[in-house]
């Protein structure tokens, strides 16, 4: 971050401290004067925000320090570490608030003394939190600071806790004082929940969690787009603070000169580090005769198919025959993926297979179709008929030939090693029998016909894949 950005971050955290401090003083004073437990609880919630803002201010200062000999990768973990401490403090305070409110309920709630003061204070608090949250969110996005953004989220949540307190005060003013204590308990529970959510998110940053498949896919695409890169594999990332360090292997032609391959690796590093959340990329260059892109794509396709069929099997629990068909198809796809994974490792070690002439674009198109289907399956928009079409595509002659070419070593002496290293997919005959049972038990005529077509594909003569 630039010096100007560092000053902006300090200003943002200072505004958070002052703003929440004022809200705490106003609500605390009004709560004591009115005797409203809900308002006092809401004031303590603002006190939590003061502590959070103070911790965040210090952590932002530490996190912006340049790397040094003792911390060669910087001090970025300071922000999530401070946030975790705030989360623990928040949860403890929330438990105390809830306990006090429950004791008030058991002992018998008393009417509040100045309902108009309490109501006006809470309305002012909601307005103040709205203005503060908008400011902190804008600054957090501009500075890419998870700590400041977390503070903005807490200010937004405080609007809802103030609303709960407002309902309690209004009910107490109407002659139902127990609702004020109940609202205080609700605010206490909300404080605990907020501390838990705050802490869980930052634990991932501290534990070096993976950033997730979407970002890993963007990293792969950035590396693959560099001239001279024939393939990308073993892409792994982990959080260092709220930024990501990534390791990846790129494949270049084995005849490429050392200086050229070094330049390709440097270009990949720069391309990946240009992604917004990437702090550092570590690139290993693999000189290979043939790219593993085809095999990587086939592995991903089979794993996607297995996940789709597994999901459908779980949804078909009330139709045992159909569920059994999805299960055997999932097992078959997963077994093919495992064998292809063995092939990829052997290719990386210098062995050659017969898939050299397979067109990557066609295989990538098939994989992307399955990715789109898997993205839809959670919404329940993928039905059995569409899943049968997936199976038909994977069992057709072209797909079977692709798989066979990718898993056939040019050196025949390696065949036994490949087969011993991974279990074979279920035999076509076994799969056909399970699908035939599903077809015979199926009441939907159109689905029965499509299952029958799939059975005929599996019954065709030729070597099983």
The main sheet orders its strands as 1-2-3
How would you sum up the global shape?
flat
Give the topology string: H per helix, E per strand. HHHHHHHEEHEHHHHHHHH
The percentage of residues in β strands lies in 5-15%
Structural class: mainly alpha
CATH class of the largest domain: Mainly Alpha
State the oligomer: single chain
Count of helical segments?
Answer: 16
| Major sheet summary line | 3 strands, mixed
* Terminal residue distance: 55 Å
Number of structural domains: 3
* CATH fold-level topology of the largest domain: Alpha-lytic protease prodomain-like
Show unreliable segments: none
Give me the CATH architecture of the largest domain, please: Up-down Bundle
Query: Got a strand count?
Result: 3
CATH superfamily of the largest domain: Cation efflux protein transmembrane domain
What share of the residues lie within helices?
over 70%
Walk me through this protein's architecture.
The chain is mainly α. It has 16 helices and three strands. It has helices spanning 3-34, 37-63, 78-107, 115-143, 146-173, 178-206, 213-224, 258-273, 293-315, 320-348, 360-377, 384-395, 397-406, 415-421, 428-441, 445-459; strands at 231-240, 243-253, 278-288. α1 runs antiparallel to α2 (37-63), α1 (3-34) packs antiparallel against α4 and α4 (115-143) runs antiparallel to α5.
Output the keywords.
single chain, 465 residues, mainly alpha, Alpha-lytic protease prodomain-like, Alpha-Beta Plaits, 3 domains, three-stranded mixed beta sheet, 16 helices, 71% helix, flat
């Amino acid at each position: 971050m630039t010096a100007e950005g560092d000053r902006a971050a300090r200003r943002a955290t200072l505004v958070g401290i002052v703003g929440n401090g004022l809200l705490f003083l106003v609500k605390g004073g009004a709560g004591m004067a009115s005797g409203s437990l809900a308002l006092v609880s809401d004031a303590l919630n603002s006190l939590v925000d003061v502590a959070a803002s103070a911790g965040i201010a210090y952590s932002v200062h530490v996190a912006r320090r340049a790397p040094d000999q003792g911390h060669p990768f910087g001090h970025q973990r300071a922000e999530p570490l401070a946030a975790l401490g705030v989360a623990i403090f928040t949860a403890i305070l929330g438990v105390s608030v809830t306990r006090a409110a429950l004791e008030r309920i058991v002992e018998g709630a008393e009417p509040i003394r100045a309902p108009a003061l309490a109501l006006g204070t809470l309305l002012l608090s909601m307005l103040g939190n709205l203005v503060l949250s908008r400011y902190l969110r804008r600054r957090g996005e501009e500075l890419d600071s998870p700590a400041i953004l977390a503070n903005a989220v807490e200010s937004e949540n405080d609007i809802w806790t103030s609303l709960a307190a407002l309902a309690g005060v209004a009910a107490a003013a109407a002659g139902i004082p127990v609702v004020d204590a109940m609202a205080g308990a609700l605010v206490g529970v909300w404080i605990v929940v907020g501390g838990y959510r705050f802490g869980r998110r930052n634990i991932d940053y501290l534990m070096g969690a993976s950033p997730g498949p979407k970002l890993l896919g963007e990293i792969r695409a950035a590396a693959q787009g560099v001239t001279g890169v024939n393939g990308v594999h073993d892409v792994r990332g982990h959080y260092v603070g709220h930024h990501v360090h990534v390791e990846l292997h790129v494949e270049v032609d084995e005849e490429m000169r050392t200086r050229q391959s070094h330049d390709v690796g440097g270009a990949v590093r720069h391309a990946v580090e240009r992604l917004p959340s990437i702090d550092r990329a570590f690139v290993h260059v693999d000189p290979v005769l043939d790219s593993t892109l085809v095999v990587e794509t086939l592995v991903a396709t089979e794993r996607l198919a297995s996940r789709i069929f597994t999901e459908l099997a779980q949804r078909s629990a009330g139709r045992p025959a159909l569920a059994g068909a999805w299960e055997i198809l999932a097992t078959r796809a997963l077994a093919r993926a495992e064998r292809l994974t063995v092939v990829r490792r052997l290719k990386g070690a210098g062995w050659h297979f017969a898939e050299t002439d397979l067109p990557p674009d066609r295989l990538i198109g098939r994989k992307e179709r399955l990715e789109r289907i898997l993205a839809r399956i959670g919404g329940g928009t993928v039905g059995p008929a569409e899943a049968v079409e997936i199976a038909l595509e994977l069992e057709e002659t072209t797909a079977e030939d692709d798989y066979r070419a990718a898993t056939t070593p040019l050196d025949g002496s390696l065949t036994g090693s490949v087969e011993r290293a991974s279990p074979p997919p279920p035999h076509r005959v076994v799969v056909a029998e399970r699908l035939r049972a599903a077809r015979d038990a199926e009441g939907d005529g159109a689905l029965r016909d499509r299952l029958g077509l799939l059975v005929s594909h599996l019954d065709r003569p030729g070597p099983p894949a």
